[in-house]
Amino acid sequence: MKFSKLVLPGITMIAVTYGLARFSFGLLLPAINESLEMRDSTSGVVSSLFYVAYCVTIVVSTVITTQEGPRRMIILAGLSAFLGLLLMAIAPNVWLLGLGVLLAGGSTGLASPPYGAAVSIWMKTEKQGKANTWINSGTGFGIALSGLGAILLMPHWRLTYGIYAALALFILLWNYKAIPEMNTGFGAKLVLKKGNFSLQGVKRANRLMIASLVLGFSTAAFWTFSRTFIGTAGDYNEWQLSGFWVIIGLFGVLGGFSGSLIEKSGLPLAYKGGSLAIAFASILLALAPENFSIAYISAGLFGCAYIFLTGVLLVWGIRVFIKNASLGIGVPFLLLAVGQVIGSSFAGVFIESWGYSFTFMLYGLGGIAAAFIGLEKG
Fold first, then answer.
1. pTM
2. Is the pLDDT assigned to residue 104 strictly greater than 90?
3. What sign has the CA pseudo-torsion 219, 224, 229, 231?
4. How far apart are CA 314 and CA 71, in angstroms?
5. What is residue 248's three-state secondary structure?
6. Integer Cα distance of 106 and 21 in angstroms
7. Read out DSSP for 236-281?
């Protein structure tokens, strides 16, 4: 199967599920808070629902993908994103917003494992690493698009989510046509014969699991509250606040090169460098949130480091669970989400008790701790 025929639909689906359905919430949160009269603690709990749904659906998706192939889960991911975004657009209260958040957040868990499986089925071995990391970089494209949407449509968050829902429907239809059935193409019959839930690699996954959990915790505050943080700390206009989010997404696209960098520098160095970079992004923002230049540098560093690190975890997981690509993606991404559930829930409480700067410094130190977990050489 040609690289573009699988990777381009994959990039767009990841852009919709992660960039628009999940991570755009932090950008639109101030307007949502004002409209629905939510406190920071309530916002933190609602935001954690993205990760709760992700934790459930990524397990379901990993199991079903292994048994039936990737197509059904990819289509279900697009449908879940569409319905979630639509519900969020029309939500009259926190309860219906929460339901939309659950569906939107669930779409990300449904999407990740089947694309890893699709790449392992229909792409040649030498192209799989780059294909996986470029599909993963779709998050960056989606975040950049959500930032541009906020600039053009501010402060109309309902209209914004309505347009995102329409885009999700279009991407769903594209993937419906693009993703072949399991009996089509390179390697498909082989995978059907092997369609078991292989757990080979679990004993070697301890460091991967701990690293993913800690990294998830350390990034949660930035995703949910960074835009609100700089908005309260500095004299930013709405264009500059939305531009902050665009910078996260645009620099996140650079994470698509993680596959090539991993090949050159190796997984241990790539992981440690990415972890320290993401930690420094939170610490930098904590030190000078009112400074326009520093805030934007922090955004660029965070976006690049986050997408880069998820690419590293993806490749690391596939190498650990070498006989099951969907499990190799599902395990680290599940633990990343568990960490974000915990981190997002606590972040709102910490902010109300001790303020934004202390909270972001604390979460930055969490990133440094993740860096010292490290990988075994080789």
1. 0.81
2. yes
3. positive
4. 20
5. helix
6. 9
7. --HHHHHHHHHHHHHHHGGGGGHHHHHHHH-HHHHHHHHHHHHHHH
